[in-house]
Design brief:
The complex is a heterodimer of chains A (619) and B (93). Chain A is α+β, with helices and mostly antiparallel strands and 619 residues long. Chain A is built from 27 helices and 17 strands. In chain B, strands 2-1-5-3-4 form a 5-stranded mixed β-sheet.
């Protein structure tokens, strides 16, 4: 039993009732800290406790919980992430979306481990959090502003420069584009809570932004954490060499080389080498990168700024690998300057580049196949770079065909002929990220079972690119499940994934156990630490099961992934036929202790000490 | 036999070329090729192969787009016309 809360925790969760502006604090139960750790775990616990299973994502009953972890603002490297937990307008299930920058560390120093927004503000507002609590402030003059403009306007209003750390929506969030993101512009780099529609949920609450001013709380690790972190630095810097020099864009060329980088809405998975080169990290570094940028407490500096004279762009955020997939290769657009423009626009307007890009590519294939005619939009030809930029504007403002793109590919498909379903690329209502659902077996089962649907941060592709579980189903269901524990743990520590994988290990191991024990004074085993990840993942599953969005039928893959092998290139012939997915699901459920319908059994709920939250989510 | 070498990221920076095509004896292995690259570019000396001749953990190597861990690693025998891609490990994304 845990009797006291380790002083690495601030001790309280802050609840903000937007309808009245009132706030209340909740003391963190030390036992809950042991069970759910922080970040992802705390956010899931808040959603489980406060959101009724039948609440629509846009109902005021939905919450948006912003949480940090126990290691944030300690010497444990790159615990510079914040987690947003909510019910997603894309999936209608639990979603956690993370972001970097300086805001999470500032939040930690307020002493609040999480801030939970309830209800709906009467007028357009922003929420300012400091160590004394939170204030809901009117913000009608901010309506219509882009994300960076909003961050700047709130900083100006509060009068302490970048010491006001702002996470803001753009027009897309205000217009409840279902995959609207939130953008944090800090003095050191931008951070984007990209996936699942956190911006749309905030928009539904009439909240334009969350701003944080730090306080005096400093977490006190129990000892030895600094020295233990220093031990990992050499490995961290060695293994993240590509990120340091090229950012995630460095992945374009090698993954294209493997023939696992989707083109033309996944009709093929390999670009001509010169096309890939044109949008690669190497090209970006040689011709457009102006400086490195970084989150708090991180030596990797994977962020970059780019400038493009022809587009009038100065020091914009570099397109990430995932964004290059969504806005370049899937569109067959290899004009990097237009691609940078489209990405910068998405960041300013507040659009998730993955869901938006995959949705546009889906619409373009539907147009190509005659399911959408020219009257829908003049911008639906593959390769149309100018049209891509125009569609971003129209989507964020829900103008013309942009209003349909704003609903995401799955809802758009429902409005078209049944044939359209053949061209979807996603699961549970969320479009897949860049890591091939056909060419990586671990991603096949990982995506199919992911809490978030098409997320590459449930099961990770990293080890698969190194040859583990990429081309075999043998042991892959257990691999996918255990990596899901790893990501749930990492997002509860709120350590940057890239630093975790590069410096501390790609699986839960003794490194993490030692760091957590040094920080908290607990005496956890590696098995105990893995159980934390497993517990959080099962909690998410329980939430989604109660909402009716997680069962055997929902754990599936789209038609193309199950029926159309990759047509050429090094990965030619790879796909995941239904019988292969069925076999992997059976093994996966058995490993997890879930029943044939994919729900945690009573024994599993008891084993993971989840009886109380299991009861709460079903009420 | 001719083998096309493709270099990415920091490996490319060390080599100074995007691709080169070199002649090797028939039966040459991945390890033979990497040793030749190390000898040609001193900045890469010790970065591609460990002392025991295995591929260093700081790089990934693909033969015709397939990670050579699926073949015989450094011992993978090459055939005329193969491409060999050398990149730092794939992290992030």
């Amino acid at each position: 039993m845990a009797d006291t809360l380790p002083p690495v925790y601030g001790g309280e969760i802050l609840h903000v009732h937007l309808d009245t502006g009132e706030t209340e604090t909740e003391a963190i139960d030390p036992e809950d800290a042991r069970r759910f750790l922080g970040g992802n775990g705390f956010a899931a616990q808040q959603v489980a406790e406060h959101v009724p299973p039948d609440a629509d994502p846009f109902d005021p009953e939905n919450v948006l919980a912003m949480a940090v972890g126990p290691m944030n603002a300690t010497p444990f490297q790159s615990t510079s992430r914040g987690v947003l937990g909510f019910v997603s307008p894309m999936t209608n299930g639990f979603f956690d979306s993370t972001f970097g920058g300086t805001l999470p560390q500032a939040l930690k120093t307020t002493g609040f481990e999480a801030v939970v927004l309830h209800g709906q503000a009467e007028e357009d507002s922003y929420v300012l959090v400091d160590e004394d609590g939170a204030e809901t402030k009117p913000a009608e003059d901010l309506t219509g502003l882009e994300t960076y403009e909003t961050c700047q306007a709130i900083r100006d209003r509060e009068g302490v420069g970048y010491d006001t750390h702002v996470l803001a929506s753009g027009p897309a969030g205000e217009n409840q584009v279902r995959y609207a993101c939130l953008v944090h512009e800090s003095e050191m780099r931008e951070g984007v809570a990209g996936r699942g529609g956190a911006g749309a949920v905030l928009g539904s609450k009439n909240v334009k932004a969350i701003a944080v001013q730090g306080g005096d709380f400093q977490p006190e690790p129990q000892g030895g954490l600094q020295g233990r972190s220093v031990q990992q630095m050499g490995r961290l810097m060695e293994d993240t060499e590509m990120l340091q020099e090229y950012g995630t864009a460095g992945l374009v060329n090698p993954i294209n080389e493997m023939g696992k980088l989707g083109q033309r809405n996944m009709q093929t998975e390999q670009a001509a080498p010169d096309d890939a080169e044109a949008i690669s990290g190497e090209t970006l570094k040689d011709e457009y990168v102006t400086e490195d940028t970084t989150c708090s407490n991180c030596a990797v500096k994977c962020g970059k700024h780019v400038s493009v004279e022809s587009e009038g762009i100065t020091e914009a955020k570099i397109p990430e690998f995932e964004s290059l997939f969504g806005t370049a290769t899937l569109q067959e657009v290899y004009d990097i300057e237009r691609v940078i423009k489209a990405n910068d626009l998405c960041d300013r307007l507040g659009l998730d580049t993955i869901s938006w890009g995959v949705t546009v590519a889906f619409a373009r294939e539907c147009h190509e196949k005659g399911l959408l005619d020219d009257d829908a939009s003049p911008h639906l030809a593959f390769g149309d770079a100018d049209g891509l930029v125009e569609l971003a504007r129209k989507t964020a403002h829900r103008e013309d065909f942009g209003d349909e793109l704003a609903e995401g590919s799955f809802r758009l498909a429902e409005s078209l002929d049944d044939e359209a379903e053949r061209y979807l690329y996603g699961a549970k209502g969320l479009e897949f990220a860049a890591h091939s659902a056909r060419g990586l077996k671990g991603m096949s089962i990982g995506y199919a079972t992911a809490t978030r649907g098409g997320s590459h941060h449930d099961t990770r592709p990293t080890l698969q690119y190194d040859g583990e579980h990429d081309e075999t189903t043998e042991g892959t269901p257990e691999f996918a499940a255990r990596i899901q524990h790893f990501t749930a743990l990492g997002d509860s520590l709120t350590q940057c994934r890239f630093v975790s994988e590069g410096g501390w290990g790609t699986r839960i191991n003794e490194n993490y156990m030692e760091a957590i024990n040094l920080a908290t004074g607990w005496d956890l085993s590696v098995e105990d630490v893995e159980a934390i990840g497993e517990r959080i993942y099962n909690l998410e599953r329980l939430i989604n099961a109660a909402r009716g969005v997680a069962d055997r039928d929902a754990d599936t893959l789209p038609h193309r992934v199950m029926s159309e092998p990759i047509s050429d290139g090094p990965a030619e012939g790879m796909y995941c036929p239904p019988e292969e997915l069925d076999s992997m699901l059976e093994t996966y459920y058995e490993f997890r202790g879930w029943n044939d319908n994919g729900h945690p059994t009573t024994d599993t709920v008891q084993r993971l000490d989840l009886e109380d939250v299991a009861a709460a989510v079903s009420e | 036999m001719e083998i096309e070498l493709r270099f990415f990221a920091t490996v490319r920076e060390a080599v100074g070329e995007r691709t080169v095509t070199w002649e090797f004896d028939s039966g040459a292995t991945v390890g033979d090729v990497l040793a030749t690259v190390e000898a040609q570019y001193p900045e890469l000396d010790g970065r591609l192969l460990d002392a025991d001749g295995t591929i260093a953990k700081t790089i990934s190597v693909m033969r015709n787009g397939t990670n050579v861990t699926h073949h015989e690693g450094a011992g993978t025998e090459l055939t005329a016309g193969d491409s060999l891609s050398v990149t730092p490990p794939l992290t992030g994304g």
